[in-house]
Amino acid sequence: MALQTRPLQSCFGVELVGVDEERIYATAHRLLTDGAAYDRMAHAVNPYGDGLACRRIVEAVRFHLGLRDSRPEDVFAPELSRR
Asked: Measured between alpha carbons, how far is 55 from 33 in angstroms, rounded to an integer?
């Protein structure tokens, strides 16, 4: 089995641990035994967004094609929604 050369994400959040077996074990052990470390990881903000980009794009396209009367809410720049 070939090892991946890109960094891997811990399944508990976004800490990059790489492919080193000892580092993966140490990180997993720390998260399983250190409640504060686990809480920080478990409640981290998702850096990849909220999973709603596709829905927002569809509504924006519908608005620009005239298939929707009102401009969709812009949750990232609310001042643009007033235009």
From this structure: 39
